Amino acid sequence: MTTIDPQQDIPPQLVKQLFTEFNEEFLNLWQNRGNSIGRIVKSHLLLEHYLNEYLKVIPPSIKNIDALKLSFKQKLSLLDLPGDMMIYILPVLDVINRLRNRLVHSLDIELNDDEIDPIRKVLAFTRQQSNNDADLADRSPADLIEESTKLLCSLFDTLTRTKRFELLDSNKINVQTDSNSDAEDS
Fold first, then answer.
1. Tell me: the pLDDT tens digits for 56-87?
2. Number of independent structural domains in the chain
3. What values do phi and psi take at 120, rounded to 5?
4. What's the sign of the alpha-carbon dihedral 101, 106, 108, 112?
5. pLDDT in tens, 124-153
6. Which domain does 130 fall in, by range?
7. CA-CA distance, 36 to 59, in Å (whole number)?
8. Is residue 119 part of a domain?
9. Sign of the C-alpha dihedral, residues 74, 71, 64, 58?
10. CA 116 vs CA 9, 138, 162, 181, 183: distances in Å
């Protein structure tokens, strides 16, 4: 077996050139694409956190959802939202999940406008409803993902807190009803 002495066998200029090329590529991935990658991964993590909290309070009320090791897609199949929300929300969650899954296999993903169209539609609609500027043309796909994440996390949190309040309120009513029936029995 032949041993290679790197100091003698590789010319210093070549080492310097290879390192420079690597460094440029790495920094490009880290700084430019890394920003979008981080935002997509963080968005997915936050959405899953608030989704889990919501799934804990809706029927069938899965208290220890983490123990089930469900995929994000499986959790979405358990999701039940009031009114027409599912029609608008599921495509957005699907897009973010698909992008996050693509990141697992490649650092070099492109975010195109067609792919994030469901996100753009939901944000335009909600902005319009709240009398805000619905024009999102100047926003990057990563910006839109981040904004939709905040919107959906807020929605899940509001629904979760409302449901918890309803559950607490119904328990108080049950306790009071039980107390009243006990008093009537006396």
1. 988 777 778 888 899 999 999 888 887 888 88
2. 1
3. -60, -40
4. negative
5. 988 888 877 777 888 888 899 999 999 999
6. 33-177
7. 35
8. yes
9. negative
10. 50, 14, 30, 56, 60
Residue 77 contacts residue 14 (beta carbons within 8 Å) = no
Continuous segment of H or E residues that includes residue 23: helix 12-27
The two most distant CA atoms of the chain are separated, in Å, by 99
Single-letter code of the amino acid located at 7: Q
Indicate whether 25 belongs to any domain. no
Q: 62 lies in a domain? A: yes
Please give the C-alpha separations between residue 47 and each of 39, 62, 94, 179, in angstroms, as whole numbers: 12, 17, 11, 41
For residue 135, the 8-state DSSP code is -
Task: Give how far Cα 50 sits from Cα of 19, 95, 154, 156, Å.
Answer: 43, 17, 8, 6
Domain membership flag for residue 4: no
